[in-house]
Design brief:
The chain has 301 residues and is an alpha+beta fold. The protein has 2 domains: 119 residues, 3-Layer(aba) Sandwich (Rossmann fold), CATH 3.40.50.10330; 160 residues, Tumour Suppressor Smad4 (Sandwich), CATH 2.60.200. Helix content is 28%, strand content 38%. It contains 9 helices and 15 strands. α1 runs parallel beside α5 and α2 runs parallel beside α3. The chain is elongated, with a radius of gyration of 20 Å. The two termini are 30 Å apart. About 9% of the residues have low confidence.
């Protein structure tokens, strides 16, 4: 007879609409895998934005392990909830979203069952978390050109085309590319001017739109990689910027600023600026502080 008192507790947060809606299909099989591995499983299914953060904040501290099944946005909510609740429970992530940048950067399997097996049989490693004012992000905070795509592209389009959907949806949104007048101060570099794009990253890839060199990115070193693109004066310069970014050549254009830092402040001319945190919409105040919380959480994989 099973002695349930000897089993560990696992909180399983599931987003049923992420990616290609595979979560509910695999839910019984994954839950059995966790149970057979010695965990009593408490399944909580999200029904709206913010649910994952609340579940993690309220109940994450009662579990020995918290596992998230969903996309990067769902995982962002889980991390946010744990951070706000002061919870230090280990987390596992089964990626089932459209792009899964965090998962790719951390070597998590895109196979749902294999990712689940790795969580119960693998080790743990700590990773940095970014604090964005009162919010958090796990791999990128971005503003400007196309940064809005992840939260404005329709879910059904993302489900069908994956990260290519962002490119398809971008074509009709070229008119939205406008510059932001900012002053950026950091322990890496200070710069000011009009910028059409900016990203504060702890990842090698962002939505398939651009990649950072793997030999530079370390997700546990307490440092961000910051990419800022100044407004170019001509279409020719714009094309050159695109070429440099796609080639990961950040030194050949004087309109590209690329540096590392552990924290930065961003002062904007506008009272509010639209950003994207791990693909979720955020509105930044005129004075914004972003800091790297080094090795803030432990990922089981």
């Amino acid at each position: 007879m099973l002695d349930f008192s000897q089993m560990k507790r696992l909180l399983f947060i599931v987003n049923p609409v992420s990616g290609k809606r595979l979560a509910l299909k695999y839910l019984p099989e994954i839950s059995k895998l966790f149970f057979d591995s010695g965990y009593l499983v408490n399944v909580m299914v999200t029904g709206r934005q913010g649910d994952a953060a609340e579940y993690a904040r309220l109940y994450g501290g009662e579990a020995d392990l918290l596992v998230c099944l969903g996309g990067d946005g769902t995982f962002n909510e889980v991390v946010t909830g744990l951070a706000r609740g002061g919870v230090t429970t280990d987390v596992g992530y089964i990626p089932a979203g459209s792009t899964n940048d965090f998962a790719a950067c951390h070597g998590l399997s895109s196979d749902v069952m294999l990712a689940a097996e790795n969580i119960v049989s693998g080790g743990t490693h700590r990773f940095d978390v970014g604090r964005f004012g009162e919010r958090y992000f796990t791999y990128v905070a971005a503003f400007g050109a196309f940064s809005w795509l992840s939260y404005t592209t329709p879910q059904n389009l993302k489900n069908v085309f994956g990260h290519s959907a962002y490119i398809l949806d971008a074509v009709k949104d070229l008119s939205k590319v406008k510059s932001e007048k900012l002053s950026v101060f950091s322990d890496g570099r200070d710069c000011e001017g009009s910028f059409i794009f900016g990203a504060v990253c702890s990842s090698t890839s962002v939505a398939g739109l651009f990649e950072l060199p793997e030999n530079i990115v370390d997700t546990s070193d307490g440092m961000f990689e910051v990419l800022l693109v100044r407004e170019p004066p001509t279409l020719l310069e714009y094309q050159n910027i695109v070429r440099c970014v796609l080639a990961r050549d950040y030194d050949s254009s004087r309109y590209i600023e690329f540096f590392q830092c552990s924290s930065l402040t961003v002062d904007a001319v506008k009272k509010h600026t639209d950003w994207s945190l791990d693909g979720e919409h955020a509105v930044a105040p005129q004075h914004l502080e972003i800091s790297n919380l080094r090795q803030f959480m432990s990922l089981k994989s």
